[in-house]
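W.,

You were right to be curious about this one. When I first looked at the sequence I had no strong expectations either way, so I just let the prediction run and decided to look at it fresh. Below is the sequence, 259 residues in total, followed by the output.
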Amino acid sequence: MCCLVAGVLLAGCATMTSSTGRRQNVGAVSQQELDQLGAQAFAEAKQKQAISRDPGQNAYVRCVVNALVAQLPASTRGIAWETAVFEDRDANAFALPGGKVGVNTGMFPVARTQDQLAAVIAHEIGHVVEHHFEERLTNQVRTSQALQLLGALAGDYGSLVTQGGSIAASAGFLLPNSRAQESEADVVGQRLMAQAGFDPRQAVDLWQNMLAAGGSRPPQWLSTHPDPSARIRELQSRADTLVPTWQAARAAGRTPRCR
């Protein structure tokens, strides 16, 4: 892993344009290295967290992930996607490079329908397909923060890792995303769920449920995201434009039946 980190530090940087038109700093790490870091972070999460053995919960998450992945570009669709359900009451979910998706059991009471769960997972997959992890690592290199990869943990993401955790976590894989990345993942995720045959309007319902469930303390998945009220308005506005996409997907036979 030290060689991998050294490769991150020494690699060159470049720019690219995301699917939403946003310019990104990338190039500090190869896709192979990203996938290796994602696999390590996922393995560590499974070691640290209790995993649900409930066959219904696991099949449910796999079904939603498979329906969404089927609409990704061939290069991403061809990855052997892996899912895990964690026994944790926090309403949280994540996706990592290399095709890793984790969902906490605490998400199920909040994401009450398959469409609402798809909104959560599609958002997280959006971070992967829009190269947000690569962007974050590249920005760390450019600001010299990547030197910390060989030191203490820079932070954590929810309950997946603890202080003093791994190099994979230090690399930023489990840190909160920037607000620009979060907004972009909203756009990409809502579009992806509609293409897969999930009702994009239920992304709005999900966020309303998240707010209601939070009370005085926002759910973990909500706490690192932009202003909820503004976000709901944007999701509602996009949902109206994505209804034809959803209807076309259903007409084409993309009718997920995960629950």
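Here's what jumped out at me. Strands lie at 14-17, 23-26, 82-86, 93-96, 100-104. And, maybe more interesting for your project: The chain has eleven helices and five strands.

Coffee later to discuss?

I.
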